[in-house]
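Newbie here. two chains, one complex. Structure please?
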Amino acid sequence: MRWPWRRGAREEELADELRAHLEMAVAQRIERGELPAEARDNARREFGNVTHIAEVTRDMWGGASWDAFVRDVRYAARGLRRSPMFTAVAVATFALGIGANTAMFTVVNGALLKPLPFAHPDQLVMLSHRPVGGRPNGPHNLSDHTFAELRATPSRAFASIATYAGSQMTLTGNGDAEPLNTGQITASLPATLGVSPIIGRTFTSEEEEPGSNHVALLSDQLWRERFGGARSVLGTSITLNGLAYTVIGVMPPAFDLPHGVALWTPLAIKPIPNNFIDRAVIARLSAGTTIEAAHRELESILTRLPSTADEKPGTQITDVRPMVDLFVARAKPTLWIFSGAVFFVLLIACANVANLLLIRASTRRHEIGVRAALGAGRARIVRQLVTESALVACIGGAVGIVLAKWGVRLLIVTAPPGRIPRAQEITVDWRVLGAAFGVSLIAGLVCGIFPALASTRRDPREALATSGRTVAGSNDRLRRVFVVAQLSLAIVLLAGAGLLLKSFTRLRAVDTGFHSSGIVTFRTILSPAAFPTPTDLHTFEAQVLDRVRQVPGVGTASIANVLPLRPPHLIGGLRIDGVSTVPKGYEVHKIVVAPGYFGTMGIRLFAGRDFNGADNASSLPVTIVTRSIAQRFWPPDGRGAIGQRLTEDEENPQPGDWKTIVGVVDDIVQQGLTQGRDHAQYVPLAQAADMPFISNDVTFTLRTARSAQELTPTVRAIVHELNPVVAVRNIQAMDDIAAASIADSRFEAQLVTIFSALALLLAAVGTYGVLAYDVAARMHELGVRVALGAMPQDVIRVVARRTLALVIPGLALGLLGALAVTRVLQKSLFEVTPADPATMLAVAGVLLLVALIAGFAPTRRAVRVDPMTALRSE
Amino acid sequence: MPGGQSRIELLQGTLDFIILQTLRWGPQHGFGVAQMIRAHSSNTLQVDTGSLYPALHRLERAKLIDAKWDRSDKGQRVRVYRLTAAGRKRLAAERTKWERMTQAIAGILNPPVAEGES
């Protein structure tokens, strides 16, 4: 006799015992005169199914031992093999639910939970000090003045502090001119983070000073890609923005600050009078210092520093927070929303499998009854059934982990850049595997326990008497509860998706005040070395403008220092000649443009004129303001603004600082589609000579019928021909810039929609399962009805009533749940309230439709019931 | 199946009782127990192997019987079951219960003739 499974000693003995029994029976028959072959056959027939007998006997051993567990698992595996259809559907359902959750947890783990890849990351904090309700740009900042003073102040709490900035630089020599994102860091940054270079050394504080600051640290990636990873790179000279820098070291990939830069140069913090810069500041706490203690000490130090001491109490906020917030603060709420959504999917999956198990249990009632009759206790049988569901869940979990690895990659690739922080640290690690296994186990137990309890509740004698036929029993109600739960969970998700989608459509429909379609933009960065004077810059920019205007298919073209909907945004106050009522804190966008900008962008001119070629460095300083500024100070229609004067210097304007308003244009959306239109003041490029940092990085805007892609080679050729060391960046359509500015909302809406579609699919399958089972179990009843003259519509009504009995409670509960839960989306929604009635109505409609589709096949079966067949099968 | 035309399926409690009673005559292996039950009931009680072995193992677990490996008279390695002290006690208790029960049933089947009648 061959046994399919490897057995423990005890099972071996049982097999021996049963084999001895069989042999004795054979021997006895032979003694009585039967032929050996005949005797063996008869004995075996009389004996019965050996595997089954061994199985039910093992049931009696009981106990919660490892052996019993292994037996249960084997028994479960055998049972699952016997019903491949059930197993496939249950495993697939779990794989979806657990896979989605594992993928999301992988992201949450890598982005939010894992410690930063630095030494003692819990000691790293961000410092900030800002006015209450202050500027929107960066909440975690200190002014350069405060930073410099703090650095010079001895403190117990802070072991070291550091700051950094980012900029673009052009790398030339050995190959094409390459525009690079670069970081400027104080010499203290690597030591503060506890990061050492791979080779070479980091900056000394003397190297922050002009004259000795032409040194550079390379990123690991740049080192390998552009310098072949050779140690000999140390001490060599590279050309940045046309100037020579000496390479002194290479930093490891973990040193990723600012994010994604290719190299670093030193940053000197100069607390000079006109420095109004705020920066992110990172500090390492001394060993044993808590964040609270550091916060108290920082507050007390700030009361003594020259730059902060005379601030009125209560007007400023001082903050010390973990450095990890720098990366994750923006992504956190979104990731939690996603996690909540996938958790709902898992709950629905569980309810689905629980239903499958209930249906399966009712077809196995005979088997369960036999075991109970033989004396296996209820606990024993329940344990076996639960083992089965846990096994299914674990197999599903294993498949889910594979799906998750794939899903995470997809998620990171499709997410807008920067939306998922610390992407390089997001991997399936032991923590993810542990969580996936734990969730699988819990899911298996939770959705196995109710069916197991329900199907073992009845008296075994009753089960035996029905001899294996399925009867719609009391499990029925439990099945319905599960379907209603699925439907209501699906509604909550659907409502979330509906709200986000509606909000996204609203965002896309925002009237920006300019015509973005048909505009192509590109950016040039001119190094001070190649263009030493403002005249050089302006001459070059004028040449490029001239040439692109002649490109076939290009209409008008102009230049601006910043574009709407793309950072950075420059904001500042103003002072108006003869008006003393400009409130403190009233700030407007400051934009430098060339003539023709408003026409190119399609911005309406309300009064006065555009800038023209005559507005140059030697002519009268002029400016153009938007309508809301004009109407605010020269009501009612703002036309009175023309000819008036204003200045950016609020404190102490010199005669040459006053600019005459020559035009009033429409307000447009600058900062973001959700923020509405912004007040702005425009200055001509030719008169912005005192702002070289603005006019060496400008964006060209072209109104054209051609696409950005078509124009790319032409634009590159024109710039290269005029000056080969100038790099061209970001050749893109204004439409794409607008789309990128709402990519986060789009991503959120897409992902939640995918999750809710998954949820809806599972809920539909669940509904279908119960209705199909229902119809099958009621075939007899339906047959009788038809035999008694019921028409198809009567049968349809019966099934429809059953369907609605599931859908209506599901809808009601789901909508209530949605009203309670969608509030968490508040911050993600634009012009849509979380309880938006239209969305809720649409969601209810979708669910009803899906339920009808799910009920279609069972209804058709019911209508086609043949009374004779149905009655005969009784 | 061979055997009589009127075999009776044994319910769990009854089977346990009969096994204990059978083992009162001495240690016996599973096959022997089945044979003795059949023989002593004149082929009326047929014990299904699928019920016998679960019952033996259950009784063993309840420490009413114990088991050890031995050689049969034909030299075959067999697992032999034997009543334990607890098993004997249980058997005595079950026996009393059973006798009271059979008396009662007999009483119902053959009601005593009331005095004064017939």
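Moderator note: The mean pLDDT of chain A is 86. Chain A has four domains: 9-60, 121-322, 333-508+743-872, 527-725. Thread marked as resolved.
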